[in-house]
Automatic annotation (TrEMBL):
Name of the protein described by the UniProt record: Uncharacterized protein
Biased composition (Low complexity): 71-80
Region of interest (Disordered), residue spans: 28-87
Entries under Gene3D superfamilies matching the protein: 3.30.420.40, Actin, Chain A, domain 4 (3.90.640.10)
Functional note: Actins are highly conserved proteins that are involved in various types of cell motility and are ubiquitously expressed in all eukaryotic cells.
Family named by the database record: Belongs to the actin family.
InterPro entries: Actin, ATPase_NBD
PANTHER family documented for this protein: ACTIN
Domain of life: Eukaryota
Species the sequence originates in: Littorina saxatilis
Parts forming coiled coils: none
Amino acid sequence: MAAASPNSDTGCESRSAAVIEFGSHTTRAGFAGKEHPQLIMPSVVGRPRTPEMQATGPENSGADNSEVKGSKSSKTGGESSSEKVKEVYAGDEAMSRRGVLRVKYPVQWGIVTNWDDLEVLWRDVFEKKLACDTEQTPLVLVEGDVGNPKMNREKATQVAFETFNVPAFYLARSPSLVLGATSRTTGLVVDIGGSVVRAVPVYEGHCLTHAAGSYPFGSRYCTDYLLKLLVEKGVALAPYGAKEAGEMIKKFAYIAQDFEQEKATFDVSQVKEYEFPDGQTIPLGPERFQCVEPLFKPNLFGFEVLGLAEHAVNTVERCDPDLRQTLLSNVVLAGGASSLPGLASRFQQEMERELGAQGDPDLRKLHVQVLAPPGGDLLAWKGASLLASSSSFLKMCISLDDYNEYGPTLVYRKCF
């Protein structure tokens, strides 16, 4: 991916706002007006497991450093094992050294749970990776969960101004951004994340938080289910594990339109060979669609929660009756799993079936239109990039002068 055009003074994109999204698993960052983020990296922070490790380096610590010994990270220019270990690492640098570091995710279920670690990640992205003079760079931060606690919204605003001294700041809610990326202002956003699924109705750019819903069943459980299916088949994935299982899903998984019929008619011509990094291969048969079926039937994985369609319909039921048809005509799928082949058509089919089973005749006559844009995992970031490049952006922001006068609670009046 091409790097941003540098400002002669700072190395930061000239006169552009920075756009950062800290997800539970992935961080995306770049500049306003760009179609794609400049940086995509794990949302992780790592510290040495023991003080001795930091003082002497992994080579003399007695720790298992097989993942880093004698190597350098191609993305980050990592240190060799003979060099002194830093106090803290972030993103790819942390993941490449996880054999000798204690790795933590500061964002859980879309909500920041460790602000000290998030500030480490934030500084690494904003100052180091994007090379911004933070005092000269407006900032848009993508807010993943509309149920984000008030104290977290205030804290994000406080850190932006008091730690990074930004001149202007905007905290943008992900569902509104997703719709903006598809040139919509009203619709139902169903975001299938790694750890959580969220259904959020949006009207004229405003999230209807009273009707929004979420449940803790995301795409990573499909990865776990694939591992379980392969073990039951007698396929041992050690030492590959979840990472390779996730790659199998990205490459070969699809959503069955009729699960039972797909099981009955699946034949050998549909088997795919997955090749591991070391050249070994395994066949993937019915597991290709079985592993993602829990999105519609979480009980397959032992979860007593609603499936995607039931969850979405319940969300629409909580909205004003006059809005329901408009929302259902603009259902947008987002998140990494939204690109699964067959997902949009199956989801539309299941939602229409669920509506038809409702006791309310007004619900039964509603129609559904589901859109799954390509690159669903980037939709929120793209929407933020568009927002930050608009002519009205700076008027929407909290300015440094306003922050100094009113404090972090101004976020409730300006960012909604």
